[in-house]
Design a protein that fits this description.
The protein has about 200 residues and is of the alpha/beta class. Helices cover about 40% and strands about 20% of the residues. The protein has a five-stranded mixed beta sheet, sandwiched between helices. It is globular, with a radius of gyration of 16 Å.
């Protein structure tokens, strides 16, 4: 396949129910989008493999849709349908490091051989549980994995939360890494779906 893509989605308690639903529906709509499907078809091999899991603390990692080959509009639609069947469930704390480590393990013996391996991490706060996120990032990058980031910056940080104002900079400095890695922040709810679609096209292309 042209790409092995792990979608790692934050469902910690800092992500409210609306944000959680926005994330899930954003990916559902993206894989039904003709521009995303076209980007997949225009690859050298014309097919990618994708899996999707939700995470919070390092003990809360829930595989929602297992590895799926997407090589046609019908396959992309089936992946979107599978993703739409289940609703997100929250948990305490935010372990980006745990999400990266879990995502890296998903590439092992998954039945696919990709020209690229990418973990896409979305979240609305910094790492506050488990190992240092920079160590997890470096472990993944040393295995040839690229990590991209989708920081969710919809709420203004307060003194009562563990959020930070410049989450996009935090993702750039501490979370993302590897060849052609990038950060694509989301700052408006109305542009959430568009951001996910654009990010996917960038990763696939």
């Amino acid at each position: 396949v042209d790409l092995e893509l792990v979608l790692a989605v934050d469902v910690s308690l800092s992500v409210d129910s609306e944000e959680a639903q926005l994330q899930r529906q954003g990916y559902v709509q993206a894989f039904r989008d003709p521009f995303v499907v076209e980007a997949i078809g225009e690859g050298i091999l014309g097919r990618i493999a994708v899996t999707y899991f939700e995470w919070a603390n390092s003990a809360h990692t829930q595989l929602v849709v297992d590895w799926t080959l997407i090589d046609s509009p019908a396959a992309a639609a089936r992946f979107a349908d599978d993703l739409a069947k289940r609703r997100p469930g929250p948990a305490h704390y935010t372990s980006i490091s745990g999400a990266i480590d879990f995502g890296a393990q998903l590439f092992k013996d998954n039945g696919f051989e990709g020209t690229r391996q990418v973990i896409d991490v979305s979240g609305d706060g910094p790492n506050n549980w488990g190992d240092l996120v920079t160590l997890a990032r470096d472990r993944a990058v040393n295995e040839g994995i690229t990590i991209n980031g989708l920081p969710i910056m919809l709420k203004k940080p307060t003194m009562w939360t563990m959020d930070i104002a410049n989450l996009d900079h935090y993702y750039e400095d501490c979370v993302t890494g590897g060849p052609a890695s990038f950060v694509y922040p989301v700052r408006e709810r109305a542009k959430f779906v568009e951001a996910i679609r654009t990010k996917l096209i960038l990763e696939i292309a």
